[in-house]
Specification:
By secondary structure, this protein is an alpha+beta fold. It has helices at about 5-15, 35, 45-55, 70-75, 85-90, 90-95, 100-110, 130-135, 145-160, 175-185, 195-200, 210-225, 245-250, and strands at about 20-25, 60-65, 120-125, 140-145, 165, 185-190, 205-210. Helix 10 (about 175-185) links the parallel strand 5 and strand 6.
Length: about 260
């Protein structure tokens, strides 16, 4: 069986992401957290910060609701803890952001979230650490600029014929974890305000969640077809004619040159 370290290398070699691809695992009992990780937050942070530490510092992290309640959306989305009353009734949003409470009610109804109490702990670690943890992640998450997410998206589509799910409102981007776990499909989303403000997500980055079986499908396609991320283009490219005979030109042009 292929190790997670090997899978991580197969993923990072063509993508060269900033930071590590991370695995996320949810546990039902608080006491289970110490069986998997040695590093716990030293203070109350947000879920996206926990993910950011795993991604950018390469540390295996684990936390209960009380340790990642810096953003109450994150703990509610994972089913760890209910929102404060002034968020449930919309009064905080009306006072601070001038948002009609009925709009916030729709947000809370529509966001992808687990039932309260379904899980008690979240584990986040670079993918390769799951060899040491001796368990499988529920979801894999990777951050990247659009060209890197494009590579994974087109690889998955070209192997399965399936369009990826894109469903967001700008709030609670961590709902992508839930969406992939509940639908069994890869998911692409944009960062939310909290993740941009709290955890060093780049202004040009998206992120994608998928399961281990999706990763293997995408990697097989990338390797067999020798796909790679398009190079960051110079502005002069915007006014050049497509080059005849090149792969992309042949794929999207009116006809293939004789």
């Amino acid at each position: 069986m292929e190790s997670y370290e090997e899978l991580e290398k197969r993923l990072t070699d063509p993508l060269k992401p900033k930071g590590f691809p991370i695995g996320i695992k949810l546990l039902k009992e608080e006491d289970d957290v110490d069986e998997y990780v040695a590093i716990r937050p030293r203070n109350n942070i947000a879920l996206c910060q926990l993910l950011g530490i795993a991604r950018l510092r390469g540390r295996p992290m684990g936390a209960t609701a009380e340790e990642i309640d810096g953003c109450v959306f994150g703990t509610r989305i994972l089913g760890l803890k209910e929102l404060p009353e002034d968020m449930l009734d919309g009064s905080r949003w009306k006072e601070l952001a001038k948002i009609d409470p009925s709009v916030m009610e729709k947000l809370l109804e529509g966001v992808h979230k687990f039932d309260l109490g379904k899980y008690a702990v979240v584990i986040a670690a670079p993918l390769k650490h799951f060899d040491m943890l001796e368990t499988d992640p529920d979801v894999i998450m990777i951050y990247g600029i659009p060209s890197k997410i494009w590579l994974l998206t087109v690889a998955y589509h070209d192997m399965t014929g399936k369009r990826l799910k894109v469903d967001f409102c700008g709030h609670g981007a961590c709902e992508a974890i839930v969406a992939t776990m509940e639908t069994g499909e890869p998911w692409v989303t944009i960062p939310c305000g909290g993740s941009i403000g709290f955890c060093a997500i780049g202004s040009d980055e998206l992120f994608m969640t998928f399961k281990i079986e999706h990763l293997k499908i995408m990697l097989d396609r990338i390797e067999k077809s020798h796909m790679s991320c398009p190079a960051e283009s110079l502005h002069e490219m915007l006014v050049m004619n497509p080059v005849e005979g090149e792969y992309i030109t042949n794929m999207v042009g009116r006809k293939i040159p004789e």
